[in-house]
Design goal:
The protein has 563 residues and is α+β, with helices and mostly antiparallel strands. The chain has five domains: 106 residues, Chitinase A, domain 3, CATH 3.10.50; 106 residues, Chitinase A, domain 3; 93 residues, Chitinase A, domain 3 (Roll), CATH 3.10.50; 105 residues, Chitinase A, domain 3 (Roll), CATH 3.10.50.40; 87 residues, Recoverin, domain 1 (Orthogonal Bundle). The chain is built from twelve helices and 29 strands. Helix 10 crosses helix 11. The N terminus is likely disordered. Keywords: Calcium, Endoplasmic reticulum, Glycoprotein, Isomerase, Metal-binding, Repeat, Rotamase, Signal. Pfam families: EF-hand_5, FKBP_C. GO terms for molecular function: calcium ion binding; peptidyl-prolyl cis-trans isomerase activity. This is peptidylprolyl isomerase.
Amino acid sequence: HCCSDLLLLLLKTWSYVGCNPTIGDVVVDRYSIPKLCPREVKSGDYVRYHYNVTFQDGKTFDSSYERGAASVGQTGQGRLIAGIDKGILGMCVNEKRKVTVPPHLAYGSLGAGDVVPPDSTLVFDLMLLDMWNKADLVVTETVSSPRDCKRSVKRTDFVRYHFNGTLLDGTPFDSSYNKGQTHDSLVGEGWLIKGMDEGILGMCVGETRNIIIPPFLAYGEKGSGKEIPSQATLVFNVLLADLHNPKDDITVENQVLPESCARKSVAGDYMRYHYNGTFLNGVTFDTSYQRNNTYNTYIGLGYVISGMDKGLQGVCIGERRRVTLPPHMAYGEQGAGKDIPGSAVLVFDIHVIDFHNPKDSVEVHVTHKPEVCNLTSDVDDLIHYHYNCSLLDGTRLFSSSDYDNLQDTVLGADKVIDGLDEGLRGMCVGERRTVIIPPHLGHGEKGATGVPGSAVLHFELELMDLQKGVPEGYLFVWVEDAPLELFQAMDINQNGEVPIEEFGEFIMLQVAEGKGRMKPGVDPEEIIADMFRNQDRNKDGVIVAEELKLKVEEDKERMHEEL
């Protein structure tokens, strides 16, 4: 009963107990049986096996081990001696058995030349290495699969995968892991053995699959090198690392758009963005966050890989998006350094911090304007103002509220960055506005303390006070026309001499009546003293009519002398 039960079990996982059946006068001793046996030899199968053949006295006369090559044959077709044809049936790969073959099922009364005498009983010690049938197909088994599979392998795709390759008996012949790099190939184009071309179809990135390939869909009779013998079934454990098609374009997904988008990026813009760079299997190869610095570049001009050049166009400031780049739009077959292998698909999760164009000007948006506005700020004016300064992503940089006093500056005096100077002009006292300043009118490529290089700045401004100024080089200007007889008007006591007290009284009167204006932000007494010294040309402490000259007249005389 033990022997008949064994012959009935097909294509199942077996746990065997030893028994020694007799099959048509052939005695079988199954002295080493593997715990797992997914398949056993049937008539018509091809087998590859090692053997030692002895006579009943134990004398060896033939051995495949000594020949250095396993024997290959087909069962049930009369190509093996009859005793082996029967004795090998039901064997499992890696099973060892002794098969005792009587003479009439071996070489009979004739024997075999000088090697096997007539009427010899032969004892074959067999070890089954491989079995297959011409009707076999490629067998695949998914070991693990990713939760999300957006795409699977099709013919003409290019794949990168890791593998461990063994013979059917478990003998390893190759491994991509040992080489430290994936195996890269087109699918369905003859780059792979036929069985792998078929077995890898339908795989997802991150999937692990066992693929069993019969010899006629592998390396057949020729085998491959020293590691893969003739007529070997191959077993691959495959992990798909990457997948793309040579016709792929970039893909954009997972977009998160800001509430408002004044404009979208175009070729020629300069952009600052953060990114995480990963492969399709999720392994990170680079990230700007780790360096705590944005990546800054011109886009659409070839400064970055072509896929990123394309994927960064048409974005809004503050936008987040995922851009997937096929290798022919990334680093191609060569890869980049040690971190990015050849033919790798790259996935970038980007966050656009800001962008600008070198041709951009200061952008001004008035948020509040008082009903009455008689004066507006201009070059040379002294102003006092509140401000909040931030990056376009909302990161706060500076604020006038951090200080005890209002911020002040003289417009046009190169006291603040150019863009802010421009943004503060034309304001009324009480006016509020937001000002967007591109870096070439801000702190430039190098940035400043607390300000990143090439950063676009966002200012919230409120003008609190305005004192009209005087042109550069002037201490006092006339708002109205100066008196025709200026010295007589200045010589209040009409004694022909104007001391500093009289001079100061006259100047202060003009300012009080709105007829003239002194340079703001400077002590009036200092201004009067400087003006007096300029007019008291002989330094005798008084000004006489011959000494008095307007600065406009002095400038004309100086220009004439220079010419």
